[in-house]
Design a protein that fits this description.
With 106 residues, the protein is an alpha/beta fold. Helices cover 50% and strands 25% of the residues. The longest helix has 14 residues. The protein is elongated and about 50 Å long.
Length: 106
């Protein structure tokens, strides 16, 4: 699309995990267009604490339409996941680097 120099922008993302790619996109918009960006809207967020910390450090606000915990909760309510499966999935957000090894998947 067309963008004017100095324009205010809300960055739209499909998914936020650590926030790194969102922050890179904001930096590119600021550098290329002198864009005024302080808000990111995502369809989904993993709700990782690293993203919260990264956005705070970058001076950005982030919002999502839904999140990983809600998706898991709805899947459990619809009988797609058991309570144990939901719990295992939610552990991913707490320790993504070690989750696969902990559950014998690596």
């Amino acid at each position: 699309g067309f963008m004017k120099t100095g324009q205010s922008v809300i960055l739209i993302e499909d998914l936020i995990s650590t926030g790194g790619s969102s922050i890179s996109s904001v930096e590119a918009l600021k550098e290329e267009y002198d864009a005024k960006v302080d808000t990111i809207l995502a369809i989904n967020s993993y709700q990782m604490s690293k993203a919260v910390d990264n956005f705070a450090a970058a001076g950005l606000k982030a919002f999502s339409i839904t999140n990983f915990a809600t998706i898991a909760e709805v899947a459990k309510a619809r009988g797609v996941l058991t309570e144990e499966q939901e719990s295992i999935l939610l552990e991913f957000v707490q320790d993504p680097a070690n989750w696969a090894t902990k559950h014998g998947l690596a």
